[in-house]
Amino acid sequence: MDFGRVKAILTVVFLLLNAFLIPQWLYQQMDVGVYAQQYADQLASIRADLAQHNVQLHAVVPLTDPQMSQLRVIPDHTSVSVLAQSIFGVHDHIRTLKSGVISGTGGKLQMMSAGLFRVTFKPPQGIEQGFLKGDLAKRVKSIIDKHGYNTGDYQLLRVEGGKVQHNLLFAQMFGGYPDFSNLLRAQVDRTALTDYLQSMVDVQQTYPPRTVMSALSALLSMVSYMDKMNYHEDNSIIDMRLGYVSFITSNQGYVLAPVWRIATLKQVFYVHAFSGEVGVGNIS
């Protein structure tokens, strides 16, 4: 074998590949740079539009625009007896106090409506307080997982309150995205979990997935809404994330729609992630 000839051929092939690939790489880098510049320009423009309404943007603007599905759901109709066994234990002494109210060792279960119930701990469940809110949330979640019903797919949404009392809000997750409409609310007083309120739904149907609008597009929809409503109020956007919400609920079923939840200091804007329609709610 003529190794010199082979080496020469390989050198030529290498040079040809470089001649082909380097321009491609440079083109891709230029494309990325143009996109980054376009994004920066769009974001700066949106900041200016928001500022005209006295609104400042302090939240991180996500770059993701995944595919999500609308979900047809109904309230969870699990019976109170099944809930009581899950919360207090199968072999625990469970006593019905009145319709929808059950007492067990360690607390009381009260059905509020279909899929909505409250658990009150007596005595309250002690918590070793930490300095970090994340530590507090983990400890509260471990208690709820032990004395709860189907709480494995709940994740912490946020912590509210001061030094003495805290409200921890957990959201049920669907496909990795939180349901903002049906939250689990846990109340901590000093160093003890006193009670929690849980709202649950069952998914009956999942519609074909579609690509959601970008976060920038959602902010543009919000600006258009403010233009239309002549909104001028000193405010700041502090959080922006994808999830699900429904403003209309029914025992017969309703739709959870993908939304961009844009939280401000004074209210929450929900932007439909397919249509761009905007709704406004209280901070919850």
Low-confidence stretches: 25-35
| Beta-strand segment tally | 17
Straight-line distance between termini: 77 Å
* Spatial strand order of the main sheet: 4-5-6-7-11-10-9-8
Label the CATH architecture of the largest domain: 2-Layer Sandwich
Instruction: Kindly give the count of domains.
Output: 2
Helix content: 25-40%
Shape: globular
Helix-strand pattern, N to C?
A: HEEEHEEEEHEEEEEEHEEEE
Mean pLDDT score: 85
Taking the sheet with the most strands, its summary is: 8 strands, antiparallel
Mind telling me the CATH superfamily name of the largest domain? YycH protein, domain 2
Fill in the CATH topology of the largest domain: TATA-Binding Protein
User: Compute the gyration radius: what is it?
Assistant: 26 Å
CATH class of the largest domain: Alpha Beta
Alpha-beta content class: alpha+beta
What does this 3D model show about the protein?
It is built from 4 helices and 17 strands. A hairpin with a 3-residue loop joins β15 (254-264) and β16 (268-272). The strands form 3 sheets. An 8-stranded antiparallel β-sheet has the order 4-5-6-7-11-10-9-8, with helices on one face. It folds into 2 domains: 52-70 and 207-281, Lipocalin; 74-205, YycH protein, domain 2 (TATA-Binding Protein), CATH 3.30.310.160. The chain has helices spanning 3-51, 80-88, 133-146, 215-229; strands at 55-57, 67-68, 71-75, 95-98, 101-104, 107-113, 116-126, 154-161, 165-174, 177-189, 192-199, 201-206, 210-211, 235-245, 254-264, 268-272, 278-281. The longest helix has 49 residues, at 3-51. α1 (3-51) packs parallel to α4. It is an alpha+beta fold. Residues 43-274 form the Regulatory protein YycH-like domain.
